Amino acid sequence: MMATLLSPTEFFRGPPEVHVWAPGRVNLLGEHTDYNDGYMLPVATPQRTDVMAARSDDGMFHLYSATLDQAVDFAQEDSAPHGFGRYMEGCIRLLQQRGVAVPPLRMYVRSNLALGTGLSSSAALEVATLRAIRALLKTELDGVTLAQIAQQAEIRYAGVNCGIMDQMASSLADEEHMLFLDARTLDHEVLPLPPGAELIVINSGVPRQLAESKYNERRAECEAASQQLGVQALRDVRDVADVERLPAPLKQRARHVVSENLRVLEARGGVDAARFGELMNLSHYSLRDDYEVSIGALDELTEALRTDPDVFGARLTGAGFGGACVALCRAGTASQAGMRVVERMRRVGGAAASATLLIPAPPQ
């Protein structure tokens, strides 16, 4: 139901007991590899989701999103309706299933993460919810376990059969470094951004609805390709040539995943900004042509970025079908490059793009 826009003080009738936050993420390389047990290189965004919490005094859960101006109320034995409350309820229920006595709570959410842009607003909500409960109840919960619970909340309660990259990045990453992730082992490593470079994220203006996209279809295609190749997951294929015997479209889907993993591993080994940009370009072409998750607006934006003299490379970020793209730029030039490209797109009547954020964020 709709609610009158509330401040935290009004919602809690005083100060909350805890106030935590979690960032979104931008993925630089390794798209659609996490649910294939593969590798990825995300960074955290300066934009974030805040969750405040306190114990409820009436035996009910009360969830309120100031971003959406929506309130959700449900009893301990009931379920939240579909929407932001389902993500939060999933976190609560999974903790309860692990033996954590989560009492009825009041939880207030606000976020400056743009929804539907592929910056992982859902993972930030899940991670921030779990952090709030951890802080409130003083529960032992390390960052990796927290990410695993957050992922299961999205799969089992929101109906999105996601990999674990978004939740791991929101739980463990920062905006100063890349986070190398191995989806099979959950090993992770903090790495520097390429020297002399910074990032700009551009919103295409086309919203993305992940649960309604072909994300689950792509996952099923990858599972079918793995079965035909006789491997546990596409991560176990190390030579792109090995997928050529598959029928279409499984061949194309597998070719993207295998080549994308190789790009991540090359970048992890240490490359300069120019080569990293080339790897980002190759990633986008593969997502466009083999994985077929790009759209015209993202193709136009990334191509416009590649022609800018201060851009090393650009690609869509997130699952695709809309959302944002990310570009690696010369240090100190990303903001100007982003503005030039956005203005160029507007002049030619292209995507309704807008420069979303710089990473790392400029000093205050």
What distinguishing features does this structure have?
364 residues; alpha+beta; Ribosomal Protein S5, domain 2; seven-stranded mixed sheet; four-stranded antiparallel sheet; 10 helices; globular
Describe the structure.
By secondary structure, this protein is of the alpha+beta class. The protein has a domain of 183 residues: Ribosomal Protein S5, domain 2. Helices cover 37% and strands 24% of the residues. The protein has ten helices and eleven strands. Strands 1, 2, 3, 4, 5, 6 and 7 form a seven-stranded mixed sheet that branches. Strands 9-10-8-11 form a four-stranded antiparallel sheet. The longest helix has 19 residues. It is globular. The mean pLDDT is 92. Belongs to the GHMP kinase family. GalK subfamily. InterPro entries: Galactokinase, GalKase_N, GHMP_kinase_C_dom, GHMP_kinase_C_sf, GHMP_kinase_N_dom, Mevalonate/galactokinase, Ribosomal_Su5_D2-typ_SF, Ribsml_uS5_D2-typ_fold_subgr. Keywords: ATP-binding, Carbohydrate metabolism, Galactose metabolism, Kinase, Nucleotide-binding, Transferase. Its EC number is 2.7.1.6.
Short overview:
By secondary structure, the protein is of the alpha+beta class. Helix content is 37%, strand content 24%.
What is the topological layout?
Blueprint: H1 8-12, E1 18-29, E2 39-55, E3 60-65, E4 70-75, H2 84-97, E5 105-111, H3 121-137, H4 143-157, H5 165-172, E6 177-182, E7 188-192, E8 197-203, H6 215-229, H7 250-268, H8 273-289, H9 296-306, E9 311-317, E10 324-330, H10 334-347, E11 354-359
Parallel strand pairs: 3-5
Antiparallel strand pairs: 1-2, 2-5, 2-6, 3-4, 6-7, 8-10, 8-11, 9-10
Helix pairs in contact: 2-3, 2-4, 3-4, 3-5, 4-5, 6-7, 7-8, 9-10
